[in-house]
Design brief:
The chain is an all-alpha fold and 153 residues long. The protein has a domain of 105 residues. It starts with 8 loop residues before the first helix and ends with a helix.
């Protein structure tokens, strides 16, 4: 047989009170757990935000550095090209000066040859004139000699 326990009102109220106390404790515990969870979520959110901000700053800094490096490299390339262009211009001017010097030498050589040719032509003309003068003088002497021989003889 089963024994049935008799409950009194006091026991029933006590059970209900116990349940109410347990309910109050459960609610308090749940509130505490919820506040702790909210604090953890807030801390995690702040942490993630800080991490994202740090990552964004790092990415921005890296981009700035790369841009700065690229700008520096571009500036170096521009300076290098300018130096190369100046060197090429100096080389071109040196070659032009060398060509001009050679041209001047050639022109001087031609002028000297022309002068030599003119001098030689003048000498030949002078020789021809001298020979002609000498021949004329001989011819004149012969005529005078012939005249003198014709008058004497």
């Amino acid at each position: 047989m089963r024994l049935v326990k008799r409950c009194t009102i006091k026991d029933i109220v006590h059970k209900k009170m116990k349940s109410f106390e347990q309910l109050s404790e459960d609610l308090a515990t749940r509130r505490a757990e919820l506040k702790a969870k909210q604090r953890e979520q807030g801390a995690a959110f702040k942490s993630k935000g800080a991490d994202r901000a740090a990552a964004g700053k790092a990415k921005s800094d890296a981009l700035k550095q790369r841009t700065s490096d690229d700008s520096g490299a571009a500036l170096d390339r521009i300076k290098q090209r300018a130096k190369a262009k100046a060197a090429a211009e100096r080389e071109r001017k040196a070659q032009q000066a060398e060509r001009d010097g050679i041209s001047a030498e050639i022109a001087a050589s031609r002028e000297q040859k022309q002068d030599e040719i003119e001098d030689n032509r003048q000498e030949r003309e002078d020789d021809v004139k001298a020979k002609e003068k000498k021949r004329m003088a001989k011819e004149k002497k012969r005529e005078e000699l012939k005249k003198t021989l014709d008058t004497v003889g």
